Amino acid sequence: MNLFRIMQFANVCPDRTTLVLLLSCCSEMETLEFGKEIHSISIRLILDSDRFVSSGLIDMYANCACIDLAKKVFQRMTDRDLVAWNSMISGLTLSNLNKEAFILFKQMKELNLAPTDYTFASIINSCSKLPSLPQGMQMQAQTMKYGYINDVYVGTALIDMYTKCGDMKSAQLFFDCMLIKNIISWNEMIHGYTQSGYCEEALDFFDHMLEREQKPDSFTLTSVLTSCSRLGSVDRAMQYFNCMTDLGVKPIIDHYACIIDLLGRAGRFKEAEKVIEDMPYKDDPIVWEVLLSACAIHNNSHLGEHAAENLLRLVPLNPSPYIILANIYSGLGRYYDAVAVRELMDRRRVVKGGGCSWVDGRVGAIQCSYRPSQDLERACVQSGA
Region 264-291: what's the mean pLDDT? Predict the structure, then answer.
């Protein structure tokens, strides 16, 4: 982009290739304003009707969450090639307009345009988002017809579709039949088992992955630690966490949060504090929120106060630390401290969001006002004061 500015200052006129490359950059970086500028330049140079430029514009607008503008570009095209159709289908899928993506896919086939691996990967992704198992199975049959069943990206999309539809048996069968597997294929299986509640199977699959000498990544370990969390397997989670560096994976905030949550819920606060002390993410609110929630389970007021203090330092207008800390105090019978926290919340004008209820087919917001004096009186009565 900087080179393009230099090019402009030098009065060098861009051509089709220049615009396509710039639109690709805008798409990847999601820089909408610069993308619109390139669109204006393409109109001025009478290149906006070029099919390569138009496809680039569709991609750019779709990735920048401007699907309506992408549709307008597509509708104005007089020479739509397969790339343009693929870009539009992918854009609709990305924008969760999955039914429209299927309609466009059908129109494309009616024009005798043969789908590619990219087309199938996009449309199968739409099946995952719906989720629609019958349509997904139909797409699998078509991938076989067009010879893309062994494509690793199409195969991975099919695994994702089966896992999202809750059919882990079919996902496993398809995975076993895949000739080529990449890290995304393995991740989809582990994540699918985790999300479907088969956490033990997810961990066994991860162990199998290591036996096959397939290196994991951050996403893999997030699913693995989530499975450990749902199983309550603290020691196993710590074992995986401690060997992450050996596996070539640098722990990220999600991993630390999961471990702190596990240790905290198990009441192993000393270990949780040690993890926080050694990690590089001390100023991330999620860490302290997870720790504070764990303290609430065990009514650990000492560590809870420390977690709340750090959380309020980072996000002072977040009502959660006030409410959780007040609940901890109430659980310990420290009603005056609970009221003091609530009053501090009022003085700082921190407002808790209202709840929503579905009543008689209508959504209603409910906001309860807090009256310290009445709550204090009730607390004193409960404590026998």
Answer: 95
Residue 356 bridge partners (DSSP)? 365
HSE value, Cβ hemisphere, 13 Å, CA-based, for 249: 22
Burial 21-30 (b: 16+ CB within 10 A, else e): ebbebbbeee
* Contact criterion met (CB below 8 Å) for 376 and 339: yes
Rounded-to-integer distance, Cα 171 and Cα 163, Å: 6
Specify whether the CB–CB gap between 290 and 284 falls below 8 A.
Answer: no
Sequence-distant contacts of 346-353: CB under 8 A, at least 24 apart: 346/370, 346/372, 348/316, 348/317, 350/316, 350/317, 350/318, 350/319, 350/322, 351/319, 352/319, 352/323, 353/319
Query: Does pLDDT of 379 surpass 80?
Result: no
Please tell me the distance from the alpha carbon of residue 119 to that of residue 106, in angstroms, as a whole number. Answer: 12
Assign 360 a pLDDT band (cuts: 50, 70, 90): very low
Buried b (16+ CB within 10 A) or exposed e, 332-368: eebbebbbebbbebeeeebeeeeeeeeeeeeeeeeee
Q: How far is CA 177 from the centre of its chain?
A: 28
Of 29, 91, 32, nearest in space to 59 by CA: 91
Residue carrying structure tokens 């993890």: 275
Q: Which helix (H) or strand (E) holds 245?
A: none
For the record, the structure tokens of 346 come out as 């009022």
